[in-house]
Amino acid sequence: MAPALWDALRESVLWAEAEWERVVEHAAGAEEATAHLAQLSAAIRQETAGSAPDLRAVPRNALSRRLLGLVRTAFVDRARALPSPDPGQLLRILHAIEVVGQHLEADWSQHFNDRLSAPDGLELVVEVAHDLRSPLTSILFLAETLQRGRSGPVNAVQERQLGLIYSAAFGLSSVASDVIELARGGDRLVDLDPIPFSVTDILESVRDIVQPIAEEKNLTVRVSSPDADFRIGHPVALSRVLLNLTTNALKFTAEGSVELTAVARNSRCIEFSVRDTGRGIPPQSMATLFEPFRRRQKPGEYTFSGSGLGLSICRKLVEAMGSVLQVETAPGYGTRFYFVLDLPHAGEPQLS
Asked: Measured between alpha carbons, how far is 34 from 24 in angstroms, rounded to an integer?
């Protein structure tokens, strides 16, 4: 045996106990930290002695992982300060620490569940979504720059491929935004003040974004605009809804077309509609169609998206704009999502 190394390990555990405030976000108090350290220390000593510790007694949670990290760091520092530590014993202790550590890290799904169920769980989701959205923004910028020939000429095939890259990145970026907004309660989905905009510009922008996807599937995207084009409303929210619905329509349409229309119902109201010629939505899927984070459907069954985020966000956006998202569907008919918005003509006094 090498008493100096055992002393170093004991001192490391005591030091970690004194430093429990470092892990206060994971521990209810010093007593909980002390109990975890006692179990960790016993497991390390048993593993070092070759007596196969009962690792089931060691709590597999964030607190144990954080404390073990403190013990590992302190032990290495103290071992380095010893004049001539026993190499074999040093390796056995370090190996024992790693064995215990592997036990603690084995179930990452449980660790992730622990984080999600913690008070800051939603913030973790938001952070992940932000991490996804940042590089996607760069991809969007570069794809658009290349597609427009700002970095040199591109041929027709390259332009089409860049269009697909842009559409895919835009879709992923939208999903990340959906996650962030749902996690934050959806209270910032729509800008506070309505502004003037062109309905035609919105429709054509959506068509331009999805056109590469449509061409890849040999589908036609048709757009129909109202006569009175300039209105006052929330163009960003409206564009997101129509883009989400149109992208999904293309996803579930094998042949035919997708039609994106805006029809004036009276002097102020416009009905927006996205209709596809796909297979339609089966009745058993209708009950949960607008639910976010619903259970995954069986392979081959209709689902707006695996998580249900897209359609849930569409419904929230439409409701925030003062309307209701509705759906018509039937086998052989396809599916039509539609909603009516009160959009005054630009320059027309708005009702308070």
From this structure: 12
**Alpha carbon distances (Å) from 271 to 115, 139, 196, 237, 268:** 43, 34, 18, 15, 10
CA–CA separation, 104 and 53 (whole Å): 14
Distance of alpha carbon 332 from alpha carbon 182, whole angstroms? 34
Cα–Cα distances in Å, from 193 out to 110, 190, 200? 44, 9, 21
Domains of the chain, by residue range, sit at 3-115, 120-183, 195-342
Token readout for 48 is: 């070092």
In angstroms and rounded to an integer, the radius of gyration of the C-alpha atoms of the chain is: 29
Task: List, in sequence order, the alpha helices (H) in 82-120.
Answer: 87-105, 108-117
Cα 145-147-153 angle, rounded to 5 deg? 100
Q: Full-prediction pTM beyond 0.70?
A: no
d(CA 49, CA 324): 68
Hey, is 15 helix, strand or coil?
Answer: helix
Long-range contacts of 262-267 (CB under 8 A, 24+ apart): 262/199, 262/203, 262/224, 262/225, 262/226, 263/224, 263/226, 264/226, 264/227, 264/228, 265/340, 267/228, 267/345
Q: What are phi and psi of 26, to 5 degrees?
A: -105, -15
Cα 334 from Cα 342, distance rounded (Å): 27
* 3-state class (DSSP) for residue 64: helix
294 secondary structure, DSSP code:
P
pLDDT in tens, 258-314: 999 999 999 899 999 999 998 888 777 776 676 654 445 555 444 444 444 678 788
Contact status, residue 203 vs residue 229, Cβ threshold 8 Å: no
Domain 195-342 sits in CATH at: 3.30.565.10
Residue 337's nearest CA partner among 310, 306, 300, 301 is 310
Q: What is the DSSP string of 315-347?
A: HHHHHHTT---EEEEETTTEEEEEEEEE-PBTT
Q: Alpha carbon of 284 to those of 186, 287, 297, 298, 301: distances in Å?
A: 27, 7, 10, 12, 10
